[in-house]
Amino acid sequence: MADIRSLPALADRRPLTSPQVTLSALPEGTVLQVIAGPKTPDLTRLAGEAGLVARAIAPGQWFLVGNRPTAHQDMRRLLAMLEPDASGIDQSHGRVRMLMEGPMAAAVLSKGTAVDLDPTVFPPGTTAATLVGHVSAHLTRLDNEAFEITVLRGFAAALWDDLALMCAEYL
Question: pTM (2 decimals)?
Answer without folding.
Answer: 0.91
